[in-house]
Design brief:
With about 130 residues, this protein is an alpha/beta fold. The protein is about 45% helix and about 20% strand. A five-stranded parallel β-sheet has the order 2-1-3-4-5, with helices on both faces. Helix 1 links the parallel strand 1 and strand 2. Helix 2 runs parallel beside helix 3. The longest helix has 17 residues. About 35% of the residues are buried.
Length: about 130
Amino acid sequence: MTIALDNADMKIMVIDDSSTIRRSAEIFLGQAGYKVVLADDGFDALAKMHDHKPALIFCDILMPRLDGYQTCALIKKSAKFHTTPVIMLSSKDGLFDRARGAMVGSDAYLTKPFTKDSLLKTVREHALEAVAR
């Protein structure tokens, strides 16, 4: 059985305190036809999640106020969003960061700066999981 995905039906949230990263992700995802919701930190993201109901979330690790690990943990503890795939974003490609991300429930890890291809490949890998929920 093949499931056809319409990118325009999929809403992706990008949480990052860097306007450059948010803008890059918005351009890359938008060009591929996805709807994009931007948040500049964990608190902003949590406030927007209930209104926008993203199918997939990219979350920076190093952010002020509420870091990515805390944000991911709160998303995964949420009754409504615990199955939503969360991909951690970091400029560090360390084993410790990956392990800590996995401990709080992240589904994958993408190193910054990302390319359009690596970002879209990650979305495709988690799109069926997101649509299946």
